[in-house]
Design a protein that fits this description.
213 residues; mainly beta; nine-stranded mixed sheet; 14% helix; 38% strand
Length: 213
């Protein structure tokens, strides 16, 4: 299974392969360990998104590139009918760090993937239940150039407020569930789906820190 992030024009910007842990057809719980080959994206001029000034980040075309998932392993809960997925972040020693809530526009599923559009705006939830917005400046820049519609932006903010209320109450999934998760050490890394262009094979270039969206 993979999580695919589409651009508004329908093209695929990123592909994250996942190890499925639970899936009832509506909610997917899956694992993405650090070091897993992914398809990431860069600006067409070769820069990572965060290397460009804010007013350029959503104006320059992007290209898909072979990459690796860096920094933290993630356990992901991806509900089919919600505008967010909750990511449990674990450090490289396997210790739970915090939750990162990726606000997303759901696009349904294909046989091997869940399809989403990254909503740019995100929520960070700490272990004590405190929370904050992340990437608000980028979301406003994306709105300004039409990367998000006002209706989508308002829906994403409402979803973030809903998530924040859950965090403040210590309600699931912010009640400690799965913070002690440990993967089987014998699990191989998830694999990208077959049929990707040869130019996007993770062995065709050097990986770099992933730039979402």
């Amino acid at each position: 299974m993979a999580e695919r992030f589409h651009r508004p024009d329908g093209s695929i910007g990123q592909v994250h392969p996942l190890r499925v842990l639970e899936d009832d057809g509506r909610v997917l719980l899956a694992w993405l360990p650090a070091g897993t080959p992914i398809i990431g994206s860069r600006l067409a001029d070769g820069r990572l998104m965060r290397e460009a000034p804010l007013d350029q980040r959503f104006r320059i075309p992007r290209v898909a590139v072979p990459d690796f998932w860096h920094g933290a392993s993630t356990l992901r809960r991806i509900p089919e009918d919600e505008w967010s997925s909750v990511w449990w972040f674990f450090d490289l020693e396997g210790r739970f760090k915090n939750w990162y809530v990726n606000l997303e526009i759901p696009l349904g599923r294909t046989p091997g993937a869940v399809d989403r559009i990254d909503g740019v705006l995100d929520v960070v939830v700490e272990r004590d239940g405190s929370w904050r917005w992340d990437d608000e400046d980028e979301a406003e820049a994306a709105l300004e150039v039409g990367r998000l519609t006002l209706e989508q932006f308002d829906r994403l903010r409402a979803e973030g407020e809903r998530i924040g209320a859950l965090a403040e109450r210590g309600a699931y999934p912010f009640d400690g569930t799965d913070t002690d998760f440990r993967p089987d050490p014998g699990w191989p890394a998830p694999e990208l789906p077959p049929g990707l262009p040869a130019s996007l094979s993770p062995r065709s270039g050097e990986g770099s820190a992933p730039a979402r969206r």
